[in-house]
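Quarterly update from the structural biology core.
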Amino acid sequence: MSVITENLADKLAQDVIKASEETGDEQLIDEIARALGTSSPTTEEMFRTFVRVRLAEQRARRLLAQKLAKHQASTAPDPQS
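Predicted structure, tokenized:
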């Protein structure tokens, strides 16, 4: 598929994820995907793929931050020493 379509689907995915988080509307992503699918099933699939990838990356980054914080807390010098 074209780079333009990929870029548009990715940008839309970013915007919809942000709007979903801001509004608390968990159904927004599916609603937008269905609207895309009525005119372009290919773009809908790209959009859904970019949403999955970006949400997975967010979860992975949160886990990484938690692991690093735990490690740093366990290796920090004891202030009472």
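Helices lie at 3-23, 28-39, 41-75.
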